[in-house]
Amino acid sequence: MADMRSSIVITVFSTASGIGKTFLATNIAAELAHHGHSVCLLDLDLQFGDVCNYLKLEPQLTIADAQLALERSPDQFRADHFLTTFRHGDTSFAIIPPPRTLLESYNIQSGTLEQLVVALNHFDFIIFDTPKIFSDLILTALDLSTIITFLCVADFVPAIKNLKTGYDTLHRFSYEDNRIRLVQNRSDSQKLILTEDVEQVLGKQFYYNLPNDFMSAKRSIERGYPLVLEGGSNPLSDSLRLLVGQLTNRETTSTVEPEPETQSGGGIISWFKGLFGGR
Length: 279
Fold this sequence. Notes:
Blueprint: E1 8-13, H1 21-34, E2 39-43, H2 51-54, H3 63-72, E3 84-88, E4 91-96, H4 102-106, H5 110-119, E5 125-129, H6 136-144, E6 147-152, H7 157-172, E7 180-184, H8 195-202, E8 208-209, H9 214-223, H10 235-247, H11 267-276
Parallel strand pairs: 1-5, 1-6, 2-4, 2-5, 6-7, 7-8
Antiparallel strand pairs: 3-4
């Protein structure tokens, strides 16, 4: 069924929580829409999805309603009926929200996602925001993805252990390496573990490094629109724009670089490398 789609599908995924997946997904959607592309963002964090909270939206219909309609009358199904629209200035993109209740979240089928992607194939881009788990639904999302943006924050050992486990699992499921984009968030925050040591553990360099700017991210969430739609320029919004350009081949290099890391992990890193070994 994936071969029937014409959209470019970008999945934002990670095996760590609280590292900015929803923030990144909404900014990718907004930046693409700002440049004139038609975009649909699906919140696949079925139990704790925050896309509509971030964008201060109150949706009338959800993916659960779409699944029910598909079950009742598949031949008459119209995906556009189940979209919630986000607008800010001249920029708009569509959203399919997660279910309202826990019970509904357990009943969402992977086949529903496949059918939705086919029904939404008139969009230039489909973005998946995902939870930190491998489930049948998330594996279907990864199967349908053109690009898997694997988000990382290299701040402490347990998080990196989860990231390595997730990255290795993607390879065990035979997802091609050229589809996976390792993106480090908060790359220039103060930490004992250096980027190059994490890259050694993962066995791959980061595709892109986003700088740390908690206050700008917090401000955009409080205002209810993605940071890239805020007027003006700052290191994080500029870096997000360049990342989206790089993901979609509008740009090939980034001119925004985080400050170089000067910390030394010393013996901590030696132990860290020994703990995880190579892939």
